[in-house]
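Predict the structure of DHS-like NAD/FAD-binding domain-containing protein.
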Amino acid sequence: MPPLLRIPYTDPLPLPKIIPSSAVTVEGAVAALVDFLSAGHAGVRARRPRASDVESERHVREQHRQEESWRRSAGGQSHRAATGIGSGSGSGEGTAGARGADVRAWGKTLLLTGAGISVASGLADYRGTNGTYTLNKTYKPIYYNEFCASHEARKRYWARSFLGWTTLHQAKANDAHRACGRLAELGIVDNLITQNVDSFHPLTHPHLPTIELHGYLRSLSQLSMLNPAWAAFLTTLLTTGALNTEDPHSRRKLGLKANPDGDIDVPNAPYTTFRYPACPVCLAKTSSTAPTVSTDADGAWTPPSTTGILKPA
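Done. Here is the predicted structure for DHS-like NAD/FAD-binding domain-containing protein.
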């Protein structure tokens, strides 16, 4: 019997149910997002005003002005009439004050982002039109247990990552990352969780608490001097300009297939010849009880080492 769910799930996901149904265009999606982020807590209107509400009321008009500027810059139209925010009429003004206070005194909105948010930065996604799972049906990322247990698997991982790091290094955060930071500055969003390992979120908005669910790639640097054959291949990619374009089709024509996690697919590549460094802290330990870390003449990790394995954080 085949497994009920393959991990990772590489097939196209079912079409989502869009709520509200009007959010099928950019303008409709912006309007729906504004309404959602501006919505007050269901039980707020029945409670007595708190000091924090009064303080929020003093600043709410200025915040609304800033929010309106953000909406327009995002391509949307004014939605004050639809949401009641900023209305100058009697009851509307009261609603505006209550909703403005609610979103700051009660709102605990958290953003969850994935590979799709970095496509505009030139990185691939997984299930989009040009996604890794869409174009490469046989792609399988390395699993943690494989990385830890197999020297051959680690050589394959580091070889592919060695070629792929420049794609991430050259990529920059885009307007979507900056919009997340702006929402935090407005007091609308409190936290963010990302599945991405590209570090764009913490670099773009360090003030917004961010959980990088799958870790990140910024904690290690991969050097080429101990791997001359792979350094030559990287030089070829640089010469052809494969690493200078953000267009996935152009990259593939020039021999480069980049995946969202910084991994590069190299057909028929001799992964067994690639070497990766051992942990320098482990190598420095001289105690007789210290675990064994073996290296070759150039300092690359070799069996039968029992520790000293480096991996991205």
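The chain has two domains: 26-107, 117-273.
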